[in-house]
Every structure is written in C-alpha cells, then in structure tokens.
Write a structure and sequence with these properties.
About 30% of the residues lie in helices and about 30% in strands. It contains ten helices and 15 strands. The strands form three sheets. Strands 3, 4, 5, 6, 7, 14 and 15 form a seven-stranded mixed sheet that branches. The two termini are about 15 Å apart.
Length: about 325
C-alpha cells in the first residue's frame, strides 16, 4: 500500500491509502523523490469550475490529482527501456502523480543522472520551454519581452539569454520575482502597464520588441504582449488559456503583420533530455527558482503557498521522505 493525495474539495488535500500501482505493458512504476507544483495543477486545488480542465470532474476529485513534474526511481517495470532502480523524470497520465508511487508510460519517461532531485525536477517545465524556443529560430541580438515571471517565465528569461537575446525585459507585478529575473538573466524589468510600453519603445527606438513571450494565460496579458511587438515581430503564446474564448485586439496585430506561435506539449524524447542536460551540468542554473521545499504530506500547504504568490514563492517542490 502507499499514501496518495486526494483533493476532496477546493483548498483541501487529504491522504488515503491505495495499492501501489501495477505497471501495464510499456509502463513503469516510480517511487517518488520530488514533485514540483505547476500552475496547471492549481485549478484542481482552487476549484476553478470555469477552467476547461475541470469541466468533466467533480469533488472529491479522483486520487493523485494533480502533480506531473516528477522525478524518482523505477520500482517496478514492464518496459524494455527501464529497469528497477533507474532514476527517471516521468510524466504520469492525466497529471495523476501526487502519491508515494505513480505509473507512467516509458514514452513519457527519460533517464536522469544523480544530483539534487529538487533541481532535476525542474527539467520537466524546462523541457516545455525548450520545445517552445526551438520554434523561434535564430534570436541572436534580438530584443525580447517575457510577460509573467513565474517559474515558466523565469525559465524563458534564462534560456533566451543563453540563446543570444541581447536585451530581455522581464515583466511581472511582483517585485520579488523581478529581483530573481535579474539573477536569471533579465537586462531590464518592469511591473507592467504603460511603463512597459515606454521601456520597450525607449530600448528599440520606438519600433517594438522582436519577440514577446506571454507566460500567464489571460486575455489581458496576451493583448499586452501583442501590443509590444514590432512590425513583423513574433508573439509566442505559452500561458495556458484560462477560458475557451479570448477577446483579442486582432486588427492591430494583423496590421503589424505579427507572427503568432502557440506552444504546449514537448517532444519528450527529443527535448526533455536537452533540459535534463542543461540542469544537470549547471549550464542553466535553476537553483534560484526553488524557493520553497516541503515534505510531500504537506502538499496542501505547498499548493496554498504557490497559489498565494506570497513569501517570495516561485517554485514549490514537494519531497518524499
């Protein structure tokens, strides 16, 4: 048997006993070392009924919702690629990974080396950022803006600077996050609003940014991002939409001949290994993003902290005992 989390109502996580999963064909069962809370996990915890992820669910939610940024060791295997004892980063089906053990298909699993689990687990979100950045082409010498400096925005800030972006403006409402953005590579920071537009105009001679990343997921921030690009500039929409339809100022974007790129899920076998290598070698230091670590059984407190955006929180990592 194992301990597994269950969100019984909004803001409430209880612990129950479940059998340790048996792997199906091409599956492994992983003993958790660390799991990181992601923004896409929050709607389940907060009970955001209007969020598309909750349309078909009701409380209490099925056990193990919601955690999917996970690392651990293979405990059982029916995979030809992984053996018991292998250390892996794995993504479970339907984000159901909030327990002492979880199952995952080997196609959604990559090996990881020894090293701090609380850092290696960030290779999962970094893999999604790698996937997005590979769509951008050569950004050497460009001016970029990253709207939103939560964990994903910070990873974009760090990776784009390492890809050769010359000037990078990090935008967020929280000053503590912007302080970390400067550590991660931002050359300029802004708390949003008209000041951001003025800063971009000053840095580009009034032309606008070559590239703007939207890493929040609201219509207001997507419209803000679209307004910051230059003619023929690129807008990368990465923030997961919080509603099915957005009211977008499309005419202005159309007249600019802006390019819109969307990015969601990565090619796990191609892009996660890149992210693992970046983290494991220290080529991209994710240490400043791991602001809080709690034991797994304190998941409720960890989710509440992450949702509140207080106490300088950027990334909450839940660690197994």
């Amino acid at each position: 048997m194992m301990q597994a989390a269950q969100i019984t109502r909004p803001h409430r996580i209880e612990w129950i006993e479940l059998p340790i999963p048996e792997p199906e064909a091409d599956q492994i069962v992983v003993k958790l070392e660390a799991g990181a809370v992601c923004g896409s996990d929050l709607p389940y915890f907060l009970g955001e009924r209007e969020h598309p992820a909750l349309e078909s669910l009701s409380y209490p939610l099925p056990p193990l919702y919601s955690l999917h940024e996970l690392v651990g060791r293979v405990a059982r295997s029916r995979s030809s690629r992984f053996r018991e004892g292998d250390r892996v980063l794995a993504v479970p089906p339907l984000q159901q990974g909030m327990g002492e053990y979880f199952a995952a298909y080997d196609a959604y699993t990559v090996p990881i080396p020894e090293g701090p689990a609380e850092r290696l687990v960030l290779a999962q979100p970094l893999g999604t950022v790698v996937h997005a950045c590979l769509k951008l082409g050569n950004v050497l010498g460009q001016t970029a803006v990253v709207v939103g400096q939560g964990p994903i925005g910070q990873l974009f800030t760090a990776l784009l600077r390492r890809m050769g972006v010359l000037r990078l403006i990090a935008v967020d409402l929280i000053d503590e996050r912007l302080a970390v953005s400067r550590v991660m590579g931002a050359t300029h920071t802004s708390t949003g609003g008209a000041d951001t537009g003025t800063l971009v105009a000053d840095l580009t001679g009034g032309h606008g940014a070559d590239l703007v990343i939207e890493a929040v997921g609201y219509p207001s921030t997507l419209n803000q991002a679209a307004g910051l690009i230059r003619r023929n500039g690129t807008l990368l929409a990465f923030g997961v939409p919080h509603q099915p339809h957005y009211d977008i100022a499309f005419r202005d974007f159309f007249i600019k001949e802006g390019r819109l790129i969307n990015s969601v899920g990565p090619d796990i076998q191609r892009e996660f290994p890149i992210a693992v290598e970046l983290v494991a070698t220290g080529a991209l230091d994710v240490g400043p993003l791991v602001t809080h670590q709690l034991p797994l059984h304190e998941a409720e407190a960890g989710f509440a902290l992450f949702a509140s955006r207080r106490d300088g929180v950027i990334k909450v990592v839940l660690t197994a005992s």
